[in-house]
Amino acid sequence: MAAPLGAEEAYLPWRVENFAIEAPLGGLRGDAVRGRAIAASREKGNCIACHLMPIPEHPMHGTLAPPLFGAGARLSAGELRLRVVDEKVVNPETIMPAFYRDPGRYHRPHPEFATTILTAQEVEDVVAYLVTLK
Hints:
Elements: H1 32-40, H2 71-74, H3 77-86, H4 120-130
Helix pairs in contact: 1-4, 3-4
């Protein structure tokens, strides 16, 4: 069960320009090592559930979504950030969840469940990892 964002994790607004969020959320600096762990974690990002990734210690990778090998060579950090934050901005038909959608925009769930999947720091960590995939 997701906990509501605490005061130390207040939602940080973002802005899209040219299918990218150029500025890091809240000016935060990501850590690629933490981002890799989040991408592999079933409790957090769980990117490997749908994407084939260069994380060999986890043998079961999904093939539902595009492989992420070379993602950092194909997309800028801003483009990757938008896809992690809310892929529906790029592809409205996607089944990929929005990992950092404004909790105030949710209208159906109980307020306890109207939260982001990842924190702003975790988004930046995942982006820092994805840009290393050249």
